[in-house]
Amino acid sequence: MDIANRNEKNPIIVPADVVPSVEGAVVECVLNAGAFKFNGRIGLLMRVAERMEQVEGELSTLVADENSELGVKVVSFKLDDPKLDYTDPRVFSYEGVPYLTTISHLRLAWSDDGVNFEIEERPLLTGSGKMETFGIEDCRVTQIDDTYYLTYSAVSENGVGVALQTTKDWKTFEKYGLIFPPHNKDCTFFEEKINGKFVALHRPVGADVGGPYMWCSESPDLIHWGNHDCIARTRIRQWDCQRLGAGAAPIKTDKGWLEIYHGCNDESRYCLGAMLLDINNPTKVIARSDEPIMEPIAEYEQKGFFGNVVFTNGHIIDGDKVTIYYGASDTVICMATMSISEILGTLV
Amino acid sequence: MDIANRNEKNPIIVPADVVPSVEGAVVECVLNAGAFKFNGRIGLLMRVAERMEQVEGELSTLVADENSELGVKVVSFKLDDPKLDYTDPRVFSYEGVPYLTTISHLRLAWSDDGVNFEIEERPLLTGSGKMETFGIEDCRVTQIDDTYYLTYSAVSENGVGVALQTTKDWKTFEKYGLIFPPHNKDCTFFEEKINGKFVALHRPVGADVGGPYMWCSESPDLIHWGNHDCIARTRIRQWDCQRLGAGAAPIKTDKGWLEIYHGCNDESRYCLGAMLLDINNPTKVIARSDEPIMEPIAEYEQKGFFGNVVFTNGHIIDGDKVTIYYGASDTVICMATMSISEILGTLV
What we know:
Two copies of one chain form a homodimer. By secondary structure, chain A is mostly beta strands. The first copy, chain A, has one domain (about 5-345): 5 Propeller (Tachylectin-2, Chain A). Helices cover about 5% and strands about 50% of the residues of chain A. Chain A has two helices and 26 strands. In chain A, strands 19, 20, 21, 22 and 23 form a five-stranded antiparallel beta sheet that branches. In chain A, a hairpin with a 2-residue loop joins strand 24 and strand 25.
């Protein structure tokens, strides 16, 4: 089942629309955008993945560099240097120090109509500090009062964790470091306190026992988190049997908190589904999609850097309509709308 | 190098000393004890691992059961039941529900001299609630003022995380749920605030990038944690190249915080080493053992359920002397003493 109304202009943002952050860099993918409203406009905080154009006989890549005005610097190695180990196409090492061949930053795009976006020429946020040397990815933007909370994947040789920054004006940012240690991704905040506590969904990964499941945690201040509770596991033989993770902030409805999430099966096919959480106790899952509410069926959702993927981490609510911004095939940004009551109708 | 003075009575506690928690259960291992002082006595909060004696044609195991007076219940399945899947010796499943063949609880032992222990006949704490269905393991006990903080591994089908309970009298306990989500273990608190914040060491595990590294985090209340920082990674070709994790609470010295930790190499040989952390900024590692300060060299450290292991999560400080309680070969509890100044001498 697929109840998404795809925009006829899809994909609405493609890599060729994005100016590389440094000379010689190639924008490989623009994907997985957080979405928010600010000063009457719609903003997308997009993930831009770049790699360096390669010169013969050399291997070059980008690393985050907070001391550089560009936020990144280029490092190059001679392919015949015996200290270089580059057997894996995604990661290589020099004298034991690892590097990724592709790193991501976050870039803003602005729109009045939610479809036609003006993309800023420079990155908004690049990896900074030792927890973000390999870049930052997949940001959820949650607004609580007049503050925007940015929760994103911080990638470094230390692992992948969830970092937090806040802003009120989209010009100055406050950093709070990692709020969830590795391995963790797919973190979104609820937009209001529940029983006097802030609440987050996130996606740690078990080892030995457990797996990539959805968890719910609480906080007095949005910076320190505890009372971690696993609320949804993968389901054997179903569309979300291999992994799952939260999308953007849960939507408050009179039936409960509606969370649109991604799930992936054994063929690494990413679909969207929905979960209904108890309004007073969001660790209680009232209902969950037996079938996806959105599947990779359009050509741009099936072919790309990593095909058969629809993945969302940003939406805009307008009454019963939810406008979903989603990454398709890990390559482009697309848009679709759904009716909230129709999603609820599939659940209960 | 090995600077440990092993007690001549080692091992001081063996499985045969421990009364099983239910009829038909076999104590397989008694290991990895937290250590503390209470009312002038030394207490060990030991991990006791049990399995069920097997009846022919059946497969029985224990699961945590908070509604049972014993804290656990026995579940049995017919081996010819087609719903039973028992190909793995450590874990099996019935109708898709997983079970472990061995589960652990925490049991107290008391001593006046620190060598001869009286073991309680009943478990003190058993797994309780959905995060501890497969038991609880490897508890660190940290005393801050008159409260004892118990940080231990909570094991369930949701993964392995770190849970917190507190007590003042070793009779009544307050539960605070998971303070670190999966995969996480080896958590100890510092015994005082640093720069106005409580501090913990713990051991999350990265996926894709990162690994089983030591992290340091801070908290306003010991329940909610943030500002997670990786402070020590595995070191290629060294004794701690495969994984590492904190032992008991860091020891305050005039050189800095001294943390005795375990490391493991590619042959899964577990040794103890030391780390010196800056007194005002414990995320800063001043020095770290090039060579272990204790290695599995005694016979009881080399042979057992899982050989070649010395692992500590409990110690008692008396002036310059640290008495280390440690699990040997994952089977028995042993004791050794070291001079703190001698450990520091190996570091700086």
